[in-house]
Amino acid sequence: MPDSTVQQAGGDFTNLATALADAGTGNGDTITIQGAWTVDDTLSCSISDNDITVIVNQGNASYHNGVYDESAQHYRLVVGDGNHCIQVDGQGDNIIDGLAIVQDAAGSSDEGIRQAVSTDSLSILNCIVLASTFTSGQDGIYAPNIDGIINAENCIIYGWGRAGCHMQNFSGGVTQTWNINSLTVLNCETVDNADGGAYEQEGSGGSTLIMNIFNSIGVAGPDTVGSGEDYNTKNTAATWSIDNCIDSDGSITDRDAGAVEPLEDRTATANPAPGVGDFVIFNNVVQATANLLLQDVPDDNDAQDAHSNTTGAGMTLPILDITAEVRERGANEIDIGADWVPPTPPAPSADAPKFGQPIDQTLANRPAFGQSEERVA
């Protein structure tokens, strides 16, 4: 079938899984999710064709605007049947853009998004990817023993029992590259997982594994209880390139000694006046009700106005953030992570005239017609 729509009512389909199945061999289709939703889409999905785009456009009623909210009318893919929320079996350039995705099952290796076969590329943009059960062995975005490129940009990922983004390879002979640009990853890894973390590379020798990360946050949260690192490698090292990123444990420079302007050992909090220390200040860091947009606290929020680099680790800063705000790109105006905080406008001067009030309140202060104002030398 050609391009199609998914709506709770009135579209070509009422759930994403059926729309994807109907795509058949029609490579290159775009499936647009739109309209207000009062129910969850609960069927696990498979992208089995090439060059498929699944999108919720920013500004549409279906778009999450950077916050997962069960009471809102944005689209929610909530899968609890023991399958991956979205499994990608297509080998072309597939795109998942603007979805709110929840893994609601408690099985080990029930992933949010899984690229199951070798691919040209999978791009995951402007998505919220979370797990509700915080189960060991689950990953937000996962790629196993495959060749290909995984691009993740402007996403918020949290609550995964193993890793937010997980590159795993044990077969050797694989070339796999991850390009991670302006992500916010919090609260990934459980106590029975020695590996895991925000970003993890795991595998054996004989493969070319590249992890590029730019302008991203990867920090522990109040529910993180494991012993893995925020930027973690297991068994064999990949090639890491990490620029203008944040961690909570000093692991950035463990992975990339030449990392550009790393901000390490930061604490995630929702307290706008956290006191002495180094912090990343979100709106809410509690797993069940998380809001991982940044608070506007420029003096204490180290993710805000953090640097001036519009490029890093081979990538370019996105024009928009996850809330569709145009990112500032000036000197020391770039915010780290998926969210950019619009600056608070300055308070009006106490001496400024009020609306409707003349600038000169008395005629005595005004020069006569044709007479210049007196100048004092």
Short synopsis of the structure:
The protein has 377 residues and is mainly β.
Sketch the major β-sheet. Answer: 9 strands, parallel
Straight-line N-to-C gap: 81 Å
The chain-level mean pLDDT equals: 90
CATH topology: Pectate Lyase C-like
Strand content: 25-35%
Main β-sheet, spatial strand arrangement? 1-2-4-7-10-13-16-19-22
CATH architecture: 3 Solenoid
Q: What shape does the CA trace take?
A: globular
Tell me the Rg in angstroms: 24 Å
Q: Spell out the helices and strands N to C.
A: EHEEEEEEEEEEEEEEEEEEEEEEHEEEEE
Number of strands: 28
Q: Estimate the helix proportion, in percent.
A: under 10%
Q: Structural class, judged by helices and strands?
A: mainly beta
Discrete helix count: 2
Number of domains: 1
Low-confidence stretches: none
Secondary structure: elements and pairs:
Elements: E1 4-6, H1 16-22, E2 30-33, E3 45-47, E4 53-55, E5 77-79, E6 86-88, E7 93-97, E8 100-103, E9 113-115, E10 121-125, E11 128-131, E12 139-143, E13 148-153, E14 156-158, E15 163-169, E16 175-181, E17 184-186, E18 197-203, E19 208-214, E20 217-219, E21 231-234, E22 239-243, E23 246-247, H2 252-255, E24 267-269, E25 279-284, E26 291-294, E27 311-312, E28 315-316
Parallel strand pairs: 1-2, 2-4, 3-6, 4-7, 5-8, 6-9, 7-10, 8-11, 9-12, 10-13, 11-14, 12-15, 13-16, 14-17, 15-18, 16-19, 17-20, 18-21, 19-22, 20-23, 24-25
Antiparallel strand pairs: 25-26, 27-28
